[in-house]
Please model this.
Amino acid sequence: MEAELAGLASSAATAVVGLMLSEAWEQGRSRLARFLGRGGGEAAVAEVEEELRSSQRELVAARDSGDEEEAGDIQLAWRQRMRRALREDPEAAEELRRLLAELEAETGKGTGVTVTNTISGGVQHGPVIQGQSFHGSITFHGPDPR
Model:
């Protein structure tokens, strides 16, 4: 069950970051804030909404400056936040799935992507990359795998 919740948290973080960069951000932000702030009253929802606004500003600035590391850190922070929320209330998983499906339907594009990668068979002699969108060039520095 933990792996399922971790996968859901990761998908949710990817959707949140994608939503931050879309025209549907305004409508999605308040719904995400209500989900993450539930049980804590209006003050908790307002606090989460401000965190989402702040993250969105930071993400846009990071993308504009080409700082993919910062953009990745923002997604990681929201993945951790989603995992905590799901650990504290595993029953919220179904609510989160519905919310993500609704946001995906409203934006008219697929933000919910399921990716399964398995790396096995010993030592990998090179980089392994998982992602949906890569911008700019990717450079690896390390020993020659030959």
About this structure: The helical segments are 2-20, 25-37, 41-65, 68-88, 92-107. DSSP finds five helices and no strands in the chain.
